[in-house]
Amino acid sequence: MYDLGPPLNAEVDEGTNLLLSGPALTGKKELAFDILTTGVRNDEGAIVVSNTDGAKRVFEAFSERIDYEDRPLAVVDCVTRQQGVSDIRDDPRIRYTSSPVDMTGVGIKFSELLQEFYEERGIERNRVFLDSLSTLLMYSDLQTVFRFLHVFTGRVQSVDGLGLYAIDSSAHDDKTMNTLKQLFDGVIETREDAEPTARLPGN
User: Fold this and answer.
1) pTM given for the model
2) Does residue 202 surpass a pLDDT of 80?
3) Crossing angle (nearest 10°) for helices 103-115 and 142-158
4) How far is Cα 179 from Cα 173, in angstroms, rounded to an integer?
5) Topology adopted by domain 18-194
6) What is the C-alpha separation between 19 and 185, in angstroms, rounded?
7) Residue ranges of the domains in the chain?
8) What is the C-alpha to C-alpha distance for residues 100 and 6, in angstroms, rounded to an integer?
């Protein structure tokens, strides 16, 4: 089981993929980082696939929560190269893709990190956060994003990981939301003035 920590105070089975759904600025990202940090404290791996912030900002978010220096934490950065910084190279903690549009590249870099954690470093429990689906949908059609996520969620499931995926629910129509929800085992909803609510598998 994966402990989701406060404020949800719930557990989910290995291989679970959860959609973090809510309007903009309702704390989806903060909640995801809290859930990842709960795992990192227990020596679980954490991989953030970010198409909203560069790796530097992702690590800053973690540094506010935990000293991560010796912890298994890595980022797939889909932003920095697109912003014109071309001379950066992958390092043990960061893999760069050309842009958020490059879903093939994102999938490859993510699989590399997951394999490294799971097989080479023997970290059997890994949490993954993809931020955000709304960015993917800005660049690609629903069918393409669905196919990408189908493979991505399957990869998380295959290593008994925990997957978290943020989406701005106010930016998409019901058809889009309902189509994507088919891929996930449960939904955590964030609201402006209330604690998040969770519809989790088995509950």
Assistant:
1) 0.97
2) no
3) 10
4) 10
5) Rossmann fold (3.40.50)
6) 8
7) 18-194
8) 31
User: What residues are paired with 128 via a beta bridge?
Assistant: 47, 163
Distances 91 to 77, 152, 161, 162 between C-alpha atoms, Å: 11, 22, 23, 24
Q: What is the pLDDT of residues 121-165, one digit of tens each?
A: 999 999 999 999 999 999 999 999 999 999 999 999 999 999 999
CA distance 123 to 97: 24
- Give the whole-angstrom CA distance, residue 148 versus residue 142: 10
% helix / strand / coil in the chain, to the nearest 5? 35, 20, 40
**Omega of the bond prior to 201 within 30 degrees of 0, cis?**
no
Sign of the dihedral defined by the CA atoms of residues 4, 13, 118, 149, in that order: negative
Of the candidates 147, 194, 149, the one whose C-alpha atom is nearest the C-alpha of residue 167 is 149
Query: How far apart, in whole angstroms, are the C-alpha atoms of residue 177 and residue 142?
Result: 10
> CA-to-CA distance for 42 and 202, rounded, in angstroms?
24
Residue type present at position 180: L
Q: How far apart are CA 162 and CA 174, in angstroms?
A: 25
For residues 106 and 78, is the Cβ–Cβ distance under 8 A? Answer: yes
